[in-house]
Please model this.
Amino acid sequence: MDPLDFALSDAPYAQQQEESRRVDELLGLRTQEVEALIAGEDTRERRYWIGLPVSALLTPYSEIHLMLSRLLQARRVVDLGAGYGRMGFVIAKHFPHLDFLGIEVVEERVNEGSAALARYGASGRLVQGDLTKMPLPEADTYFLYDYGSQSAIEKTLDDLRTRSLHEAVTVVGRGGATRSLIEKKHLWLSGVVEPEHFRNFSIYRSAAAVHP
Ligand SMILES: C[S@@+](CC[C@H](N)C(=O)[O-])C[C@H]1O[C@@H](n2cnc3c(N)ncnc32)[C@H](O)[C@@H]1O
Model:
C-alpha cells in the first residue's frame, strides 16, 4: 500500500498526528531521529523549532490534504518553512497538477526530506534557504505556519503584500502568530475577501485572487 493512502478523515487531532508519524516511517522519513540528532546543538535557535516534538513541528498529512483540497485555483504552492516537505508528498500523490517548492532553513531537514521525496518519485523540490535573507519565491499560493520569529513572519507578510500588488495571492495561515498578524495588520488579506477558517488553519485571499 502507498504510504500516502492515509485515511482522509476528520479524526481527532492526536490520531492524525499518530497516523502521520506512521506515514513518515513508511516513507523512510526519519524525522524523530534527525530531530534527536540536531537537538543537542545550541548554535541554532529555538525559532527553528529545534528540540520540540515532531508532532508540534509538522502539520499532519491529512490536514495538508484538507487545505490543498480547498485550493482549487492553485497552480504553484510554496511552503515557507517547509520542515521535511510533507506537503510535497501529498501533492505528488493527490494533487499532481500542482508545482511544489518548499523552503527550509535547517539543512538536516532538507537533506532528509529531499532524499525521501526523490525516492517517492515526487517532482516537487525542497531547498535550503533562509526566508529572512532571500526574495520571496514566485507562486500563487503560499503556506505559512508560524515558521520563525514574529519579525521574520512580518517580513514575509510584507513581501507577500508587495507581490499581491501585481499578482493574485492566496495564503494558508497556520498557527497563532501568523493568523493574528494577518488579521490585525494585513487587512489586504483578511479584510477584503472573507477568509475561510478551519480548526488549525485559515485561507486568506487577496482581492485579485478572486477577481483576476
Ligand atoms: C512549524 S514548522 C512547519 C513545517 C511545515 N511547514 C509543516 O507545516 O509541516 C516551521 C519550519 O520553518 C523553518 N524556519 C524557521 N525559520 C526559517 C527561515 N528563516 N527560513 C526558512 N525556514 C525557516 C523551521 O526550521 C521549521 O522547520
Summary: The beta strands are 76-80, 99-104, 125-128, 141-145, 170-174, 196-197, 201-205. The pocket of S-adenosylmethionine is lined by residues 47-49, 57-59, 79, 81-83, 86, 103-106, 109, 130-132, 145-148, 152 (CB under 6 Å). The mean pLDDT is 92. The first strand starts at residue 76 and ends at 80.
